[in-house]
Automatic annotation (TrEMBL):
The protein, known as: UDP-3-O-acyl-N-acetylglucosamine deacetylase
Single GO biological process annotation from the record: lipid A biosynthetic process
Keyword terms, alphabetized: Acyltransferase, Hydrolase, Lipid A biosynthesis, Lipid biosynthesis, Lipid metabolism, Metal-binding, Transferase, Zinc
Annotated catalysed reactions: a UDP-3-O-[(3R)-3-hydroxyacyl]-N-acetyl-alpha-D-glucosamine + H2O = a UDP-3-O-[(3R)-3-hydroxyacyl]-alpha-D-glucosamine + acetate
Organism: Haematobacter massiliensis
EC code(s) of this entry: 3.5.1.108
Length: 306
């Protein structure tokens, strides 16, 4: 069934790019509402749909905007938390142009959402079943969606820096796998990139506390890595958040090598451009009893697919 959060939950922190304080509250919403963001610091048309067609090209994060130009950036980690917890309906209110970065992972969002608990709504989840492979490329990077019974994410990264190197991980997202295995993996960057971004007025809120910063073969952030392959796990977290902008949980397999936010959005645009590539299906029963099912719904949980 569709779900929402039982009661509102607030997060305060700084924006990664502005370095300025920001307050974000996730509110419950009714069935069929979907996920929307609201810029509470702006008057007028301040609602922004968390949808693939509201994404504005941005190098460093996922940024969405409405027709009036109201925008919010760095939405991917809270989107991953909502999707990974199975929240299908919520209003995310932010009092500034970006979501708080917190520790650079989705774990604080997941903890806050689960502390409030989920409420089932008496309406079936509408899922997006992938009917045929769709693939996009950008140089050496590529991303693909193909038919599968539940959401699986398979990601490969390949960095020359020995601190990261080549990492591959594949994970079935059903049954709370996101919460168990991915949500605590933090964003990462090279020390050189941090210096270059900050010289250009970007990532002003970036610290060793909210990103894994590495330099050649060294991890500079105190405490080191949370997982040996934290980098690829974070890329999978980002992918889940960006795929959630499809507006419905995906029943299909996502594979990417060297992909990122822009490529995942390009993939969703390619998917929705081909009416034979997908079908919306009502999932009669799937999210069970307040557990953490994640995005994917197992076919064995769901005997009837429309
Ligand atoms: Zn990220």
């Amino acid at each position: 069934m569709q779900t929402t959060i039982k009661s509102q939950v607030t997060f305060t922190g700084v924006g990664l790019h502005s370095g300025r304080p920001v307050r974000m509250t996730i509110h419950p919403a009714s069935a069929e509402y979907g996920i929307w963001f609201r810029r509470s610091d702006l008057d007028g048309d301040n609602l922004i749909p968390a949808r693939w067609d509201a994404v504005v090209p941005s190098k460093l994060c996922t940024l969405i905007a409405n027709r009036s130009g109201a925008s919010v950036s760095t939405i991917e980690h809270v989107m991953a938390a909502l999707a990974g917890c199975g929240v299908t309906n919520a209003l995310v209110e932010v009092d500034g142009p970006e979501v708080p970065i917190l520790d650079g992972s989705a774990q604080p969002f997941v903890k806050g959402i689960l502390a409030r608990g989920l409420r089932e709504l008496a309406v079936p989840v509408r899922a997006l079943r992938i009917l045929k492979p769709v693939e996009v490329r950008n140089g050496q990077a590529w991303a693909r969606l193909e038919p599968a019974d539940m959401l699986e994410i398979d990601f490969t990264i390949d960095f020359v820096e020995p601190a990261i190197g080549r990492q591959e991980k594949a994970l079935n997202m059903s049954n709370g796998a996101f919460v168990r295995e991915l949500c605590d993996s933090r964003t990462f960057c090279r020390q050189d990139d941090v210096e270059r971004m900050q010289a250009n007025g970007l990532a002003l809120g970036g610290t060793y506390e909210n990103a894994v910063v590495f330099d050649d073969d060294k991890v500079l952030s105190p405490g080191g890595l949370r997982h040996e392959d934290e980098a690829v796990r974070h890329k999978m977290l980002d992918a889940l958040g960006d795929l959630a902008l499809a507006g419905a949980p995906i029943l299909g397999k996502y594979t990417s090598q060297r992909g990122g936010h822009a490529l995942t959005n390009k993939l969703l645009r390619a998917l929705f451009a081909d009416p034979f590539a997908y079908r919306l299906v009502d999932v009669a029963e799937g999210i069970t009893g307040g557990k953490l099912p994640g995005v994917g719904v197992r076919r064995t949980d769901v005997p009837v697919l429309a």
